[in-house]
Amino acid sequence: MESGEVLVGVRVAVHLTGIVRHHAGVKDRTYQLPEGATAEDLLRRVGEEFGHRLPPRMWDPGSKRFHPVIRAARRGTPFLEDGDPLRDGDEIFIISRMAGG
Q: Which one, of 65, 63, 52, 56, lies nearest residue 25 by Cα?
């Protein structure tokens, strides 16, 4: 990055919970994503980083998608839909609905 260059996008704090955290071996992570990034973009990014540690029933590397029980939720709100946009400074929890997070 050159001096004075400004990064455009959103920075989100991610908290892996429950069974996802257990397999990933990581509790917290921060991601810088492009402006307009969605919950689906974030889940893909998390899966690409940690998918090799997750069982096949949780992450499908072929489709680059989590099983539908693995969801993202913004602090203080219900689960996000795939197309929901992320906001700079969001705090996102990756939760297994089946295990209760």
A: 52
| Coil, strand or helix at 11 | strand
Secondary structure letter of residue 13 according to DSSP: E
The encoded tokens of residue 63 equal 């489709």
Reported as a single tens digit per residue, the pLDDT across 66-87 is: 999 999 999 888 899 999 999 9
Inside any domain, residue 58: yes
Q: Could you tell me what percent of the chain has a pLDDT over 70?
A: 89
Residue 86 lies in a domain: yes
- Per residue in 52-64, pLDDT (tens digit) is 999 988 999 999 9
- Collapse the DSSP code of 7 into the 3-class scheme (helix H, G, I; strand E, B; otherwise coil) and give the result: coil
What is the tally of structural domains in the chain? Answer: 1
Given CA atoms 71, 48, 84, 30 in this order, what sign does their dihedral have? positive
Q: The CATH number of the domain where 20 resides is what?
A: 3.10.20.30
How far is it, in rounded angstroms, from Cα 56 to Cα 66? 9
